[in-house]
Amino acid sequence: MKRSIVKLKKSRVNLFLKKHKKYAPLLFFIAGFTWDSFTLGRIDRLYDIVILCTYMCLLTLSIYFFNLVGNKKRRNSFLKKYGNYLPLAIQFFLGGLTSAYVIYFSRSVSLSKTASFFVILVIVLFANEFFKKRISNKYFQFCAYYFVNFTFFSFFLPLMLKEMNTTIFLISGAISLVSTFILVTLVYRTSDSARVEIVKRKMMFMIFAIYLSINMFYYFKLIPPVPLALDKGVVAYNIDVKNGYYEVTYEVDDWYVFWRDHKINFSRYSNKPVYVFTSIFAPTDLKKKIYHQWKWYNNELETWENSDKIGFEIIGGRDNGYRGYSYKENVKDGEWKVEVITDEDLVLGVVDFNISTQKAVLKPILITKMY
């Protein structure tokens, strides 16, 4: 055993990590994010599910074994040989999970009111770069672990059950809460350092506070309804359905406005309807009622007024999303938006535009795309 430990310490990998110790966490952070960006596709794809389940399991094991390093009873064990690599493993798996969440949660046309939760994900993602400096702080370890654990189950259960609603979200939170408490208790009982560094009640309180915070985000509709995602949202002049395809006619924006396809200023030259086309990704066999909530901004009252609410049921499985549209006649000039929402009023995204009735001869330059 001693020979193998000496050999490992003199290995090229260990010497490289020792030499570049300052930059190793950043390299593992970039590696985890880059790997996910190139390999993750559909959230319901078997490869993606296996990868995320593997990350979650290995993160759990890495945290558990890391907390056993230094135990007197385990000095000559596997942990002494590989213990130095566990902080990097934790960072890689935590970075892999958070980067995957950022990728999945960012696939809506507009983050709108859900941007706050997305920002938290991004902060956790970049904070992971400095995780190694805080790895000795067990409160930080388990709080970060619980956050990614809850997020994991919040979309993993709907994938497995082919259904998503408030009850399933609450069950996801309960499972993640129980599983994290079990890990904390197991570490506390088997780790000498944990019993010294952790005040058990304080740890449980911090984790439960995160649990309540995430539920508050859900209650106030601030969490994107992953695994659903708004793939496309366009305000259009006309929509025709032919041979199973949607012919969408709309005005494109300037080339440098890369985050939006349609032009935000919608010019009406007649009393024709205004259309909004959306395509929504949903996992295979998942059925869900979706609504287009039309809203008009009242400048006098400085508030959004609800107009039409048009619903349709989507069925998951199509690569480019389930297509649907709504339209409105006799619209007023001014600022409009169409919120794409679920039964629980969770926002998938927002299609915003400004309507102005024009009397000019020149008409907008329109294109027609097939979806």
Tally of separate domains: 2
Low-confidence parts, pLDDT < 50 over ≥5 residues? 1-10
Order of helices and strands: HHHHHHHHHHHEEEEEEEEEEE
Note the gap between the termini: 62 Å
- Report the C-alpha radius of gyration, rounded: 25 Å
Beta-sheet strand percentage? 15-25%
Which sheet architecture does the biggest sheet show?
5 strands, mixed
Q: What count of helical segments does DSSP give? A: 11
Write the layout of secondary structure elements.
Elements: H1 2-9, H2 12-19, H3 24-39, H4 46-66, H5 78-82, H6 86-105, H7 115-127, H8 138-161, H9 166-190, H10 192-197, H11 200-219, E1 229-236, E2 238-242, E3 245-251, E4 265-268, E5 274-281, E6 287-298, E7 303-315, E8 322-328, E9 334-342, E10 347-357, E11 366-370
Parallel strand pairs: 4-10
Antiparallel strand pairs: 1-5, 2-3, 3-11, 5-8, 6-7, 6-9, 9-10
Organism: Polaribacter glomeratus
Transmembrane segments: 23-43, 49-70, 82-104, 110-131, 143-161, 167-191, 203-220
Protein name: DUF2914 domain-containing protein
Summarize the structure.
The protein has 371 residues and is of the alpha+beta class.
Describe the structure.
The protein has 2 domains: 2-219, no CATH class; 229-370, Immunoglobulin-like (Sandwich). Helices cover 45% and strands 24% of the residues. It has helices at residues 2-9, 12-19, 24-39, 46-66, 78-82, 86-105, 115-127, 138-161, 166-190, 192-197, 200-219; strands at 229-236, 238-242, 245-251, 265-268, 274-281, 287-298, 303-315, 322-328, 334-342, 347-357, 366-370. It has a 5-stranded mixed sheet, with no helix packed on it. β9 and β10 (347-357) form a beta hairpin.
